[in-house]
Design brief:
cell outer membrane; disordered C terminus; mainly beta; Immunoglobulin-like; Maltoporin, Chain A
Length: 930
């Protein structure tokens, strides 16, 4: 398509290698319709050239020097002035003043001038306005071409401004043809007579050409899954089984992504993944990705992007990659929106959106609410080992309970274009989430001291967060050149509390109650981000990107524990100072990056860069100052990246791409892993974080091949990850027989794998896609020591082959009826000290379009062949072996209705930048570690 557009431009300009105008116009319109990308047709000049930049040779030393000797203000000042300097001194080979590369809007005050052959000049002027025939609104940046009465060699031309006006000056007197064109409209040609002065052309009304393509079949609908050079895109809005569901239901269908029955997210076998919303970090996922995925309605998700080897312009990412959830937003003129309701056996929700756009101003909003009900039951058996490896039964547990929860999610966005090439945005989003439940558990403790007791526990969890972000983006006539400044503030606040009564024996009679305990844990996470980025093209195939960023995090955990007194008959809880504390944690990250992409030939292109990040960490315990328990870290990280793309341009296999990539990433632990709060709601299985954790460093390698064969897509990749200082959960039994879980930087985590994705169309109305990921993981840890009970554990290692696969199939019947099936299988999971059993999931959906496709009714059934899934896990160490069964109720049926309203027209998309904080390792379940 790029090649076709270049040929068209050369044709219109009368340059060598041109095709006839009739052919280039048809090609260009079809290209624009397929891409659905609205930009002005530029039929003039802009010949290709190449400029080799020395930047890659000195990028890394320069970044090191800046991070070591310069402060953030200096970095920001340099980057803020870079665009100004670039404007005053154009680079060699840049387009001359008034010459506009294809795809870029012109300045309102002046019409872009073409590169033309020498023609007679005069004092004639030609002016006019171009309007949309249906709406009578201006057609921005329509192309104006002045042609002779015979022949197709342009004599002059330009583009309309943002009000649809055009002006040509210095014209010779005479009779000419004036051609007006724009993507999506039928081209008009008028005869004009130009005199010595001003000639005004009557308003030109362009009619949409969409309805005039009856003889040409153009399929513009996106596939459910698309493969791009650096990412895989899952178009959630095209998958009917998502209707009425949540983001967790959506992520289960994304290639390379796993979501277990509890909602924990993994990418290519690792939970070390950063989840973004609209390219930005969000307080919604600050404490728990699993909880956040329950809050976002599937009906508000447009697509999900998976980036496995990000470039240096992204923050230090981690072992797995980035999962970017894109929420629905449109560039449609007018008022439009949607409403949706879903009722089901496991969850119900309602959502609505309302959008308004007129001219330079656009508003978008959405609001949703949901509720869910989740019963559960589990059992656990533990065996202790002696020095010879012999096992003795130590503990038996059985429990059951239920959880009831709900909340809401809302967002409001404003974008404003004060002038051409300038864009301002302001966005606010927030969420509320609550859940509560009752859980009863019988404990039969045999070792080290026999004891039987029952615990009845009420749990409460609530969280709320908001994000406020704004940006200014400055684009230029020069294609791909832009400068942006962004700022964001995120706040997350959550409270986890439990209240338990303990009874002697297997009873809950009040007379048997002998112990009570209460706990209240308040966690806060404040994050402020400042960022600036600048992109400068040196040619059509060479692009330099650079930027600076500051992330300031303020995290705290204030936890109080109340327990029954050790003496006396009164069991009412009193404050326990030994188990209560206030933990403060501050993390500041200053970063700068540079990337340079260029083409070595028509088939080979490179992208290389480096990112330097300076991290400063301070942490302290309020009640342990005298114990010198503060945490301090200060380190500099240099993170290079490199990618090579090869496109053989084989006519028999169009679209082939071979990509080789390398990146080094850093992953800092989030509050989930750092929080020292000791969760003792189950007195025989406790957990807490480790505030002294250090960051992980990961080297990622990937080879990816993509091809398109007769409408089918094939994507094959091989990858390897090696993580040093990897953060993993470790467990041990203390001297009181309690299973303690915390986190530690183990020695090494290595993964080697391959993945295959394919999408085929056996019949015109039948789509089938599938993904297979097979990988080998090796975990190694040195001997670990813990102060709790003076326990020392031996060195551990575990390894094995794992896999996951999924299949998605849909068929469209007549009269708006469609059927879709989705299913997946995950193999047993290898862990450092054990493994987790395999699990499967599947969904069947039937949808009927109503009210002239403005509404749809969808019936979905999930995991309907069995009521529960057993998330069985086994732990096996030198001290103990433990088997647990966790039965999760996943069978569900839901009925969803969605209605879309509003009469709208398409408006051109804007080039914008957004904040992406993806440098922290997050927890999988905020309720277990807050």
């Amino acid at each position: 398509m790029v090649f076709a557009g270049l040929v068209c431009r050369r044709a219109a300009a009368g340059l060598p290698g041109a095709v006839p105008p009739q052919r280039h116009q048809l090609k260009y319109r079809l290209t624009g319709l397929l891409q659905r990308f609205r930009h002005p047709f530029q039929p003039f000049g802009n010949l290709r050239f190449s400029l080799r930049s020395p930047f890659p040779l000195f990028a890394t030393p320069l970044l090191l020097y800046l991070m070591k000797h310069a402060t953030l203000p200096l970095l920001l000042t340099g980057l803020l002035t870079a665009p100004v300097l670039a404007q005053t001194t154009p680079p060699a080979g840049a387009p001359a003043a008034g010459q506009r590369p294809a795809g870029m809007p012109a300045q309102p005050a002046a019409t872009a001038k073409p590169i033309l052959s020498n023609t007679a000049k005069g004092s004639g002027r030609l002016e006019g306005t171009v309007l949309d025939a249906a709406t009578k609104k201006p057609v921005e940046f329509a192309t104006i071409t002045l042609l002779p009465l015979s022949g197709n060699t342009p004599l002059d031309g330009g583009v309309c401004d943002e009000r649809g006006r055009f002006k040509l000056q210095g014209l010779a007197a005479g009779e000419f043809r004036l051609q007006i064109s724009f993507i999506g409209y039928a081209t008009q040609t008028r005869n004009v007579t130009i005199g010595a002065g001003l000639t005004t052309v009557p308003a030109v009304s362009l009619e949409s050409s969409a309805q005039k393509l009856g003889e040409v079949t153009v399929t513009g609908e996106r596939d459910v899954i698309e493969t791009k050079p650096d990412r895989i895109v899952y178009n959630a809005e095209k998958d009917i089984t998502n209707s009425g569901g949540t983001a967790a239901d959506v992520l289960r269908k994304v290639p390379l992504v796993n979501v277990d029955p509890e909602g924990n997210v993994e990418l290519r076998g690792t939970s070390n993944v950063r989840v973004l919303i609209n390219n930005k970090p969000s307080g919604v996922v600050a404490s728990s990705v699993a909880d956040a995925m329950k809050q976002i309605p599937a009906d508000q998700i447009k697509s999900v992007e998976v980036i496995t080897t990000p470039s240096a312009k992204y923050d230090g990412e981690g072992t797995g990659g980035i999962i970017n959830i894109i929420l629905k937003k449109n560039n449609l003129e007018g008022i439009n929106g949607s409403v949706g309701l879903a009722a089901g056996t496991r969850s119900s929700n309602g959502n609505a959106s309302l959008n308004y756009r007129k001219g330079k101003v656009g508003l978008s909003s959405s609001l949703s609410g949901f509720g869910f009900y989740s019963p559960n039951r589990n059992d656990l058996t533990r065996y202790l080992k002696d020095g010879s490896g012999n096992e003795r039964l130590a503990l038996e547990q059985q429990g059951d309970g239920n959880t009831l929860g709900g909340g809401g999610f809302g967002r409001l966005g404003l974008d404003y274009d004060p002038a051409q090439y300038h864009n301002l945005t302001l966005n606010v989003q927030g969420n509320l989430f609550r859940n509560s439940g009752n859980y009863g558990q019988f404990n039969n403790l045999l070792l080290p001291v026999a004891d039987e007791f029952t615990r009845d526990t009420d749990r409460r969890f609530r969280t709320q967060s908001y994000d406020v972000n704004g940006s200014y983006t400055r684009t230029f006539e020069q294609k791909r050149r832009e400068w942006s400044v962004l700022a964001q503030h995120t706040r997350n606040r959550n409270v986890q509390a439990y209240y338990l009564d303990q009874f002697a024996g297997r009873t809950t009679e009040n007379a048997a109650k002998d112990y009570r305990e209460e706990s209240d844990n308040l966690s806060r996470n404040l994050e402020t981000t400042l960022q600036t980025d600048y992109a400068h093209p040196f040619s059509e195939t060479a692009l330099l990107e650079t930027g600076a960023k500051a992330i300031l995090r303020r995290v705290s955990s204030d936890y109080d524990v109340f327990t029954s007194p050790l003496t006396g008959s009164n069991i009412d809880p009193v404050f326990n100072a030994n188990r209560s504390n206030l933990f403060d944690y501050n993390q500041d990250v200053l970063a700068a990056y540079g990337t340079y992409g260029f083409s070595a030939s028509k088939k080979v292109s490179f992208k290389l860069g480096a990112r330097a990040e300076n991290t400063r960490i301070t942490g302290s315990f309020q009640q342990q100052q005298s114990d010198n328990s503060s945490v301090k870290q200060n380190y500099l990280s240099v993170l290079p990246n490199l990618s090579l793309s090869y496109q053989p341009q084989n006519p028999k296999k169009p679209g082939q791409t071979l990509r080789i990539a390398y990146s080094k990433r850093i992953q800092r632990p989030q509050i989930f892993y750092l929080n020292p709060f000791r969760n003792s709601s189950d007195s025989l299985n406790v957990s807490f974080g480790n505030p002294e954790l250090e960051p992980e460093l990961t080297n990622s390698y990937e080879i990816n091949y993509t091809t398109f064969i007769k409408g089918s897509v094939l994507n094959l990749s091989a990858y390897a990850r090696r993580t040093g200082n990897a953060i993993e959960a470790v467990r041990y039994i203390d001297r009181n027989g309690v299973n303690v879980q915390t986190f530690s930087n183990i020695g090494r985590n290595a993964t080697f794998g391959t993945s295959l994705f394919t999408s085929v169309k056996p019949m015109p109305k039948w789509d089938v896609s599938g993904n297979l990921n097979v990988y080998y993981v090796s975990l190694k840890s040195p001997a670990l020591s813990f102060e709790d009970g003076a326990i020392n554990t031996a060195a551990y290692s575990n390894s094995g082959v794992m896999y996951n696969l999924n299949l998605n199939s849909s068929y469209k019947f007549e009269k708006g009826l469609s059927l879709q099936f989705f299913g997946g299988l995950n193999s047993p999971r290898v862990q450092l000290q054990g493994k987790q059993a395999a699990w499967t999931f599947y969904s069947l959906g039937l949808r009927k379009n109503l009210l002239k496709d403005k509404a749809d009714l969808t019936l979905n059934a999930d995991n309907f062949l069995s009521a529960t899934r057993n998330l069985r896990s086994t732990l096996d160490t030198d001290q103990f072996r433990q088997e647990s069964n966790n039965y999760i109720y996943l069978r569900g049926v839901r009925l969803a209705f969605n209605y879309r309203f509003g009469k709208v027209t398409q408006q051109a998309p804007k080039r914008r930048r957004s904040i992406q904080n993806d440098d922290v390792k997050q927890g999988s379940d905020g309720q277990s570690q807050q």
